[in-house]
Design a protein that fits this description.
Distance between the termini: 65 Å
Helix content: 25-40%
Radius of gyration: 20 Å
Number of strands: 9
CATH superfamily of the largest domain: Vaccinia Virus protein VP39
Largest sheet: 7 strands, mixed
Number of helices: 11
CATH class of the largest domain: Alpha Beta
Shape: elongated
Number of domains: 2
CATH topology of the largest domain: Rossmann fold
Order of helices and strands: EHEHEHEHEHEHHEEEHHHH
Length: 263
């Protein structure tokens, strides 16, 4: 069977031991999901293991590359009872519309150039996406899992950690890919927490987080000066800190005060 050509930006995982290790990370604890979605299956290295998952959960592959889709359809033509292949862009794939309220897990070797948009898409469907295991550029993986008071901690770290527990699992060397990327990779796992909704206006929360980190060298007093903050907030001492020093709950509190000032 002829494998799909390697397109610009694609790096196919070739190490079967690592592929098995990545898929096993999805099932280290009993699943709180009923369906698995794989993003960008390529030649099916992860798919091979996902099809035989220990809980016999159905798998949907979302693959944008037509050549890869044809390859996967031929490869799995006798195993389609538990597999659905969707030729589409994940960024345009409406999880809630396709799966309804069915709890999902997402897995994949995320394309490095669109990993952040993928996570923003996941956040749009955070009520149904319960667990994520993914491989990313190592620096991005470390950033998402970083706690406050670290230079890696940033906007997407806060947004995701508001709704997910994030673990950095292990690093992946470049030589296990074909072609080998110029950067190292890392695998992380995200597990949905118990927070259904933030205790504040989420649109304003996102605005405050973005504004704080876009001026991360400044104290929040200067970074957020466009907001009219009251004396109560001044007494918290938070305005003397920089964005990277604040936890998710600190940002929620700032947002609550900002909301009061809008009333």
């Amino acid at each position: 069977m002829v494998k799909p050509k390697k397109h610009l930006g694609q790096h196919f995982l070739t190490d079967l031991h690592l592929a098995q290790k990545i898929t096993q990370a999805l099932f280290d604890t009993p699943p709180d999901f009923l369906h698995i979605v794989e993003i960008g299956a390529g030649t099916g290295v992860l798919t091979d293991f996902l099809l035989y998952n220990p809980f016999q959960l159905p798998l949907t592959v979302v693959e944008i590359d037509t050549e890869s889709v044809h390859f996967l359809e031929k490869k799995y033509q006798d195993l389609r009872a538990n597999l659905t292949i969707c030729e589409t862009d994940f960024l345009a794939f409406n999880l809630s519309q396709y799966f309804g309220n069915q709890p999902l897990a997402i897995i994949g070797n995320f394309p490095y150039n669109i990993s952040s948009p993928i996570f923003f898409q996941i956040l749009e469907h955070k009520q149904v996406v319960k667990r994520i295991v993914c491989m990313l550029q190592k620096e991005v993986a470390e950033r998402l899992a970083s706690p406050p008071n670290s230079k890696e901690y940033g906007i997407l770290s806060v947004f995701l950690q508001a709704f997910y527990k994030i673990e950095y699992l292990f690093s992946v060397p470049s030589e296990v890919f074909n072609p080998a990327p110029k950067v190292q990779s890392g695998v992380i796992r995200l597990q949905r927490n118990e927070v259904e909704h933030l205790a504040c206006d989420e649109a304003m929360f996102r605005k405050i987080v973005k504004q704080g980190f876009n001026n991360r060298r400044k104290t929040l007093r200067n970074a957020l000066k466009v907001l009219q903050l009251n004396e109560r907030l001044e007494r918290t001492g938070l305005l003397d800190k920089r964005a990277e020093q604040l936890s998710v709950q600190d940002f929620v509190y700032l947002t609550q005060i900002a909301q009061e000032n809008k009333k």
